[in-house]
Amino acid sequence: MNIVNEAKKIIEKAYSEGRRHLWEDEAKYLCSLYGIPVAKSKVAKSEDEALKIANEIGYPIVMKIVSPDILHKSDVGGVVVGVKNDEELVKSYRQILENVRKRVPKARIIGILIQEYAPQGLEVIVGAIKDAFFGHTVMFGLGGVFVEVLKDVTFRVTPVSREEAEEMIKEIKAYQILRGVRGIKPRDINALVDIITKVSKLLEYHPEIVEMDLNPIMLYEEGKGAKVIDARILLEPKS
Amino acid sequence: MHSLDVFFNPKSVAIVGATPKTGKVGRVILENFKRKFKGKVYAVNPKYREVLGVPSYPTLKDIPEDIDLGVIAIPAPSVPQVVRDAADKNVKGLIIISGGFSEVGEEGRKLEEEIKKIIIEYGIRVIGPNCLGVYDAFSGVDTFFLPEERMRRPVKGPIAIISQSGAFAATILDWAAPRGIGIGKAVSYGNKIDVDDIELMKYFEKDPTVKAILIYIEGLKKGQGLKFIETAREIVKSKPILILKGGKTKRGVEAAASHTAALAGTYELYKAAFKQAGIIEACGFEDLFDMAKALTTQPPAQGKRVLVLTDAGGMGVMATDALESLGLEVPELSDSIKSVLKEKLPPHCIIRNPVDLTGDATDERYKIVLDTVLPSNEVDVALVITQMQVPTLTEKIVDYIYEATKYRKPIVVCMTGSEFTEEIAKKIESKNIPVYPSPERAAKAVWALYKYNVYRTRVG
């Protein structure tokens, strides 16, 4: 019950500020409340704050610009990966702001997201939409070209049971890759089933969510779990 | 008594808008009832005292006896008054054939709202408006306003059809008739202001004459998705549901902000829903009836292991390809089975799976293989190819295949050819064993028998 209330607060805050989207760190926090593993992150509004957060999380870290006007952060030099210490952090902080001011001078800047560095895994995507006929529907697929070019994805109407989540995973054409193929070790399918069912659960408690993308999720080898790197949540218009 | 019984088994029917004028909807419907319906029929038309020998009354209320079902075929603006009359008369159900309601715009939508209010207040059940209504081969209820000489009616049978499109329902009945496909009931529900697909599915679940429910759907009512899934999921535990989805185009995705929204076409969601519901989706109406034929005549396949038995090597290979591409298996037979077969069959027969009885195959060889392999626990279903061009095969094959049904495993037959083949095929089908004219279609039927078993036995 506490979890749900805590999560509702995040949504209420967005609405009260006239937003229909959650900030990346809010979206991730909401997910983490439901037990979905996310890369730790927090928005820093100053260099000092950035240093404090980075030391809490522990180096190495990733830094990303947070702005409602910037959709593709790396295209404008808004992302630095693998920052190792305080000195590099200060340097990167200034560099990101400079890049963004130069390339998108009118962008409103909320701050810089300081995020735990998650090692590369197999990239997968779990998403959801709210459909007028079926209500919340969860999607799963492999990231990158698999989702964008091949559209190798599958859907289930919520509530999604563990059995159904397993079916979803087995159903995509790229399933063999998850089971391990030529040098790619078998992936932690159990962790993926967890994420899918937890997303389904989360949606049950928050009917306001109309779109959700956990993309990418790094899926590691069997037994080593998964981590959500980026999360987007869009809310329905406030009635 | 179920509140929908009145549409399928009324004791008395009044046809509002019955007329002697040829080509009119009200005439065709009256003729249908006159010809087949066993209960009482009345006409309602203020212009006549009788229509085609049936007594006619100015309004429903003037009919001196009780009326179970009213069929309305008059212009939309006059319909609300008839519904009010029906309420006064205590009519239990109405089939409103007339179009001109919400499907044409605001004016029509208002008429629909007016009708809804009355039927809710009086508890009248309604199918329609804007529909063909009900066809019941058992009771003779037939509100399909397409004359028999243009649209044949199929023989009675175990299939029930629920169609969002009237034209689809009519076409299907006419198409099924010459093919000998048995259809017991068909409903075109039009604008579904009251009775909808979900309620009809549930009704047919309880109908002992129905063995398979076939649905044509374009879209559900908003917010009904989950109820549809949950209802179907329950029904498929006792009866298979097959579906043909019309309208597979993408939704407008122009404003999609996320990957998920951009990928979630309406059809993708329907496909997901059908899987969750345990509904078998057909890719066209031939496919729909191919699968229905297997599911209404054969027990479900308890597993995915298929015996392919053939007298034509190439056909066996094609069947195997088709089965495997559908995810089924054509497993190697055990040594013990093979040695029994080797002992009983001539040495030139190819004993693996497919079992190839070759171009001099006899009826007895089929019997030997079926009697040896089917009782074993090595296969779950048999796909039997009998190319009748082989002169050593005779009509006896029909009985041998039929006798093999005693092993309680499904059997699907494939035979490709001309007149002689078709004659034998008819004889096999008369024993309730499905026959298909190509290995691919037979394989798809086997798949349906397997898939249905998976859905039927699924927990939860």
Search tags:
heterodimer; A: alpha+beta; Dna Ligase, domain 1; six-stranded antiparallel beta sheet; four-stranded antiparallel beta sheet; 38% helix; B: 460 residues; alpha/beta; Rossmann fold; 2 domains; seven-stranded mixed beta sheet; 16 helices
Characterize this entry briefly.
The complex is a heterodimer of chains A (239) and B (460). With 239 residues, chain A is an alpha+beta fold.
What does it look like?
The complex is a heterodimer of chains A (about 240) and B (about 450). With about 240 residues, chain A is an alpha+beta fold. Chain A has helices at about 1-15, 25-35, 45-55, 85-105, 145-150, 160-170, 175-180, 190-205; strands spanning about 40-45, 60-65, 80-85, 110-115, 120-130, 135-140, 155, 210-220, 225-230, 230-235. In chain A, a hairpin with a 3-residue loop joins strand 5 and strand 6. With about 450 residues, chain B is α/β, with parallel strands linked by helices. Chain B has 2 domains: about 5-210, NAD(P)-binding Rossmann-like Domain (Rossmann fold, 3-Layer(aba) Sandwich), CATH 3.40.50; about 300-455, Succinyl-CoA synthetase domains (Rossmann fold), CATH 3.40.50. Classes of the chains: A alpha+beta (about 240), B alpha/beta (about 450). The interface of A and B includes residues 125, 141 and 167 of A.
Produce the secondary structure layout:
The complex is a heterodimer of chains A (239) and B (460).
Chain A: H1 2-16, H2 24-33, E1 41-44, H3 47-57, E2 61-66, E3 79-83, H4 86-103, E4 111-116, E5 122-131, E6 135-142, H5 145-148, E7 153-157, H6 162-171, H7 175-179, H8 189-205, E8 209-219, E9 226-228, E10 231-235
Chain B: H1 5-8, E1 12-16, H2 25-36, E2 40-44, E3 50-51, E4 54-57, E5 69-72, H3 79-89, E6 93-96, H4 106-122, E7 125-127, E8 133-136, E9 159-163, H5 166-176, E10 183-188, H6 197-206, E11 212-217, H7 225-235, E12 241-245, H8 259-263, H9 266-277, E13 280-281, H10 285-297, E14 306-310, H11 313-325, H12 335-344, E15 350-351, E16 355-356, H13 363-373, E17 381-385, H14 396-403, E18 411-414, H15 419-429, E19 435-436, H16 439-457
Helix pairs in contact in B: 3-4, 6-7, 7-9, 10-16, 11-16, 12-13, 13-14
